[in-house]
Amino acid sequence: MKLHQSNKRATAVFIAAALGTCIWFIAVFYVGKGITGEHAPKKEEVQHVSARRALLQEREQQQPLRVLHVVTSLTEYNDGNRWTTFGEDRLKKVLIPTLQATIESITQNTDWHVDVYLILGFTLSDERRQLIVDALPDRVGLEIWNDACPLYYDKGNNEELVVNTRALARQHRFVIKDKLEYYDLFSCWEDDMKITSDHMQNFLQITNELNDLRSKAPEI
Question: How far is CA 139 from the centre of its chain?
Fold first, then answer.
């Protein structure tokens, strides 16, 4: 069943992440894997996370791994910047082929349940949305956040809100927050980044190995 299309607009202000042609700046997130923070976690916090991790591992052995593949795309047609051809159909030339190849690879894992969430810097028409639907397997859900660039006050003008296109890459955090309880693995990328099943399998394997080492490490 296809997920309902979302037409939300975020109004929060975020610092934009600089993009480089050879830099992957959005990471893969795995629920319950590791603890971050400025200070070392308390013993009871570690016990809580360990218990949650154990529950996740037990659930993974019994049910399909739930994967949400999140893709951000700023423009529907290329604007000529960053070595692109002005007016070229980016949706057809870049987003759909890359997304299709990624999903075909991920769904080779028959014990995984995969859905797609698109975060767009533009509004996609129903006709163009259907192109994406047709490119995905029937069992893969699709949800779209149209016109997702956040708004901010223009520097030096506290009365005028403008669209911050550079901050689109940060919007995946809202998706993860909303979907945290419904998926086990979040794969967040831009529209020209192809991810394969091998990438995800390697990430999961290394994550489990690091967790095992951590659990066996002596307390200090």
Answer: 19
* CA dihedral (78, 80, 84, 85) positive or negative: positive
Residue 77 DSSP class:
B
Q: What is the pTM of this model?
A: 0.70
pLDDT in tens, 84-115: 889 999 999 999 999 999 999 999 998 999 99
CA distance 10 to 97: 28
- The region that residue 34 occupies, defined by phi over 0 for left and psi between -120 and 50 for alpha, beta otherwise, is left
Closest CA to 192 of 23, 2, 3, 4: 23
For residue 174, what are the contacts with CB-CB under 8 A and spacing of at least 6? 10
3-class secondary-structure state, position 167: helix
- Those residues whose C-beta lies under 8 Å from the C-beta of residue 111, and which sit 6 or more positions away, are 64, 65
CB within 8 Å of 45: residues ≥ 6 apart = 35
Q: Find out whether 70 and 99 touch, Cβ atoms under 8 Å.
A: no
The owner of tokens 């993860």 is 176
Contact 185, 69 (CB under 8 A): no
Question: What are the structure tokens assigned to 162, written together?
Answer: 């403008």
Residue 188 and residue 70: Cα distance in Å, rounded?
Answer: 5
Residue at token pair 């949706």: 91
